[in-house]
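Can anyone check this?
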Amino acid sequence: MLYARCAFCGYTAPLNCSGSFMPHPTMFVELTAMGPTCPTCGPLPPVFTCPYMHTQYLYVPGYTAPQQGYAYAPVAQVQPGASDHSIQSELGKVAVQLGGKIGEGVVQGMFGQS
């Protein structure tokens, strides 16, 4: 099961889809080779909006190349029924990776290193 955490308020929720063009019953999003994918709709836009209307890009390790100047919601794959502590721990690990990737980009931009 995929979980995302809002970069602004920290709201954490499982990623789900209720249909982008044709409405369908709410289904949990799966991680495939094309990124987050709804079993009915197919690959989804890499965007997460929390209930407080904070919109940001999804950061899925290995699928997303973060860029400086954008907000990213870290995404972690966790076993169904996992405790809140396990979910937050996995999302924390992803957030640390995200910070490292953005930091690398800043250094490369400042010093022209690749």
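Reply from J.R.: I decoded it. The CA atoms of residues 21 and 62 lie 28 Å apart.
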